[in-house]
Amino acid sequence: MKKILFLHGLNWSGSCPIARALQTELADIAEVVSPDLPVDPEEAIATILDICDRWQPDLLVGSSYGAFLGQQIVKIAGCPALLCSPMFRMADFLESRLGVHDFKSPRADGVTCYCVTAELVAKFREMEKHQFDCYDKFYYDRVWGFYGSRDTIADTRDKFSSLYSTVIKYDGEHTMSPDNVKTVLVPAVLKITETFPRREARYFRHFKGNYYRLVCHGRDSETLDRLVTYRALYGGYGFWVRPERMFFERITRDGKEFPRFAESQHLASAGVPSQKFAIFASGNGSNAENIIRFFRDHECDAEVALVVSNRRSAKVLERAAELNVPSAVMTRDELNDPDKVLPVMERYGITAIVLAGFLLPVPEFLIRRYPDRIINIHPALLPRFGGKGMYGMHVHEAVVAAGEKETGITIHYVNERYDEGKIICQAKIHIAPGCTPEEVAEMVHMLEYRHYPRVIMETFVHAAAE
What we know:
Blueprint: E1 2-7, H1 17-25, E2 30-33, H2 41-55, E3 59-63, H3 65-77, E4 81-84, H4 90-95, E5 99-102, E6 113-116, H5 118-129, E7 143-148, H6 157-163, E8 166-170, H7 178-195, E9 202-206, E10 211-219, E11 226-232, E12 239-243, H8 244-248, E13 250-253, E14 256-259, E15 261-264, E16 275-280, H9 286-297, E17 302-309, H10 315-322, E18 327-329, H11 332-335, H12 338-347, E19 352-355, H13 364-369, E20 374-378, H14 393-401, E21 406-413, E22 423-430, H15 437-465
Parallel strand pairs: 1-2, 1-3, 3-4, 4-7, 7-8, 16-17, 16-19, 17-18, 19-20
Antiparallel strand pairs: 5-6, 9-10, 9-15, 10-11, 11-12, 13-14, 20-21, 21-22
Helix pairs in contact: 1-7, 2-3, 9-15, 14-15
């Protein structure tokens, strides 16, 4: 059964007519939890987040004050929301209503009334300044608004429409009637939960480009402040723990405002990875093995689906077999035949090709088939020490013989000419006096292992998500 968390209006309680109508209409398909919310908005937010942590709702539904609160925590909760008559200007509404007011439905704690004070109004006004701090375009289609045709209280439709895509008008007042719930709200509940089911894992892109998986919410053991734990999808196995608000909030850089961590859909669905790589290699295959293991060890929407070699005796084929990666051996003539190569690429759903010690030129038909989708790593700083015949130890011997003080790696797109494709990135090392070609080769290999998988990820996986 679906789990729905309902957030009531300020004058009401968890037993309000909207909550009861939802529970009745959805009795066979969803559990609707409707807690009594504190009048203090800070306490109410804390209450809602605690419930979300424990219960993991599939959907938030809020009315008036509850919609005001729900909009603020939808990204933290990580589920879609239906917001009925959202009151984004609670302070203005309450300022002229100082004094004691009766709740319109009974509360579980027996409290029958609440008091609007200047202090309470000030709390609302302060919260309103930050109510959109966690806004994320990821929820543009995942938060729907409802406005009654005779609502004279919630004049927030323009603001809502600037943030979210869907506004639904119903024939009614500020507070939905049971009939409105049955004819308008329940169909929306069914549609939005089917369209946006709760995700088993949540992924975020830091504004500097790195991708992370949210691991869990928690609390500081001493201060009880809310925290989040998250993990990078590449570049190590470390975990980060940060204040929850800091993780989800928007920031400003160079006059532009955006989320510090923007939620991403590209990794949120389980199943077959959308990015499938073929590694072309001619020799030992240590780089190929490193790349295969990298994409297995890091949660991302990609995998190495095939290893291709032009040498039947190449060690890379043994490595592929040990790692259960399919492989194919193609001679020079076969590699130059589109009818031999392209069906293999299509059979494995290859979306990009990675060269890792591949000693043959890539045929033009393959470059045309995969424009800007074939990359190579060269063991020197191109354009120096590149071109035909410059591979492996030949490169390092030439670098040392030339008295170079530095060398490194170049990762570049592949075009019709050896080592002349557009450079994606370079990494350098210093060559100490007396360094041998073998020592240089070892240092360059370390650069290859460190940088090549990361650049493949950034070039093909992250770029596809943007």
